[in-house]
Amino acid sequence: MSDDDAAAWKRVRAGDELALAELFDRHEARLFRHARRLLSTREDAKDAVTVAFFELWRRRESVRLVDGSPLPWLLNTVSHAARNLERAGRRYRTLLTRTPAASHHETPVLSDESGVLAALKRLPAREQSVIVLTVLEGYPDRAAAETLGIPVGTVKSRLARAKAKLRDEMTAMEASWA
């Protein structure tokens, strides 16, 4: 990516916390936008970005860079953190519904008007990661393969499967509008 990322990354690998702060300042807004697409609350999106940078620091010895940048790795980690936060939120809401209360208040349900986001969330995690990196973030198949640690052919087949599933869901959704 940029020489700035490569230089900061060398310093991060050496244990320089200020270099991590530089990477955070450089990529936080993009990662936050990505997290907001996947999560329903702003606070959860902030948490997902925080988790990604914490993991970047913790795993700095084994992070796979693409073109000298940790950004694709961070995007993938934000996606995983978002799924974990969504799962934890569902468990928490389920627990709340099972807990007796003096007055029961319904938990507001946030809906995705278009259904596209809901369809994306229903994809298996492996296909979701490929869609996020190649379609939403625009990385080439080779970069996605490097980030995910899989062959380029696997990226292409997962992408084709995911697009077919999304296309079928969108077709069904459009038919229900008629």
SS class: mainly alpha
| Sequence of secondary-structure elements | HHHHHHHH
Mean pLDDT: 88
CATH superfamily of the largest domain: RNA polymerase sigma factor, region 2, helix turn helix motif
Tell me the number of structural domains.
Answer: 2
Low-confidence stretches: none
**Percent of residues in helical segments?**
over 70%
Q: What is the CATH C-level name of the largest domain?
A: Mainly Alpha
Q: In CATH terms, what is the fold-level topology of the largest domain? A: Rna Polymerase Sigma Factor, Chain: A
Largest sheet: none
Outline: globular
CATH architecture of the largest domain: Orthogonal Bundle
What percent of residues are in strands? under 5%
> How many distinct helices?
8
Total E-strand runs: 0
> Based on the structure, what is the oligomeric state of the protein chains?
single chain
- Span between termini: 46 Å
Cα-based radius of gyration, to the nearest Å: 19 Å
Descriptive report:
With 178 residues, this protein is an all-alpha fold. The chain folds into two domains: 98 residues, Orthogonal Bundle (Rna Polymerase Sigma Factor, Chain: A); 68 residues, Winged helix-like DNA-binding domain superfamily/Winged helix DNA-binding domain (Arc Repressor Mutant, subunit A), CATH 1.10.10. Helices cover 74% and strands 0% of the residues. The protein contains eight helices and no strands. It is globular, with a radius of gyration of 19 Å. The termini are far apart.
